[in-house]
Amino acid sequence: MTPEVIKPAVRTEKITYAIRDILLVADEVAKTGKEMLYLNIGDPNIYDFEPPRHLIEASYDAMLRNKNGYAPSSGIKDAVEAIRNEAGRKGIKNIHDVFVTHGASEAIDICLTALVNDGENVLTPTPGYPLYTAISAKLSAYENPYYLDESNGWQPDIEDIKKKINSKTKAIVLINPNNPTGSLYKKEILEEIIKLAEENNLVIFADEIYDKLLFDGQKHISIASLNSEVPCITFGGLSKNYMVPGFRIGWGVISGNEAKLKDYLSAINRILRSRLSANHPEQYGIKIALEGDQTHLVEAMKKLQVRRDITFEMLNKVEGISCVKPEGAFYAFPKIEIDKPDIEFVSGLIKETGVVVVHGSGFGQVPGTHHFRVVFLPNDEILRKAYQKIGDFYKKFTA
Questions:
Q1: What is the pLDDT of residues 237-270, one digit of tens each?
Q2: Cβ atoms 166, 142 nearer than 8 A
Q3: With CB atoms counted within 10 Å of each terminal CB, which end of the chain scores lower, N or C?
Q4: What is the architecture of the domain spanning 10-50+295-397?
Q5: Which CATH number fits domain 53-291: 3.40.50.1260, 3.40.640.10, 3.30.160.390, 3.10.310.20?
């Protein structure tokens, strides 16, 4: 007798995560013994990057001092104060709450869960980090993507955002610097977004996890620093700037008009208390990371600047591939002129060359366009080899 099948929740059907889903293809290819060149995961520790030693020692010392039990729901006092001070250095004022989470991902999940009801929506950037659409699907919210303008350096398209706002829109997400494009948003664009948020009573979700990884002397502008009244949650963490994604330490900083935020703050804190706490001993590394020696960033950016330039130059030399120069983070989002879905291009690339990138459709893109995302964390030799293989495969794919 065939057992009755257990049916999963319908809400899971639309949950995808292209960055790791593509590994299902890569793992099968790797089993054949083919040399693999991984340009798909934004984990600095897989490559030649290391966290600052004092961050590791502070966390290890906390473990030895048996700080291994539950932490306060919003985080230990020294960590919360250090994050608040860091937000102040970024120019953020009128701060009402700071909380530590299991990576910035949990902070985003909590804040969306506390805000969005069934059938409502949040404006998410396209292309953008797929976590936001995955959480929206889980919450039975519907997708409401707005486009980034490739012809304008991947800046948010303000006119498109205006068209997408409706009576069910609760918030707008900004990823700045952007994953997957590496774009850095201009002040005038941020000011336009603040204006729209105020006019439409929207919360701004400012994902600024890469705010210290900037090229060419660029300066990051935190959107919350431009207006102390607009409701804004600024997300950050240790994962990228401090090279410890495995620590799973992130945070949220809530700022803006207190009267508007009062009930929402209470809802967020109810969720924070119900899930107990973030990792405890690792929180002792937050203060020393944010306030200690930042030399690791100088060294990291020397490597990344060279690798960004190799990426930009080599990919743009391939006829049919064009790449906007990234200004922050460690990603690029090249456009490819093909007449088939980009998942076919990427799957074929992996199978034939062992070069692992992520298809652009996994991040969203303007209909009719095709892209792929590369992570330029690997060393110069690996990148040059990978881009040569990409160029050769592209010519074959489009022949």
A1: 999 999 999 999 999 999 999 999 999 999 999 9
A2: no
A3: N
A4: Alpha-Beta Complex (3.90)
A5: 3.40.640.10
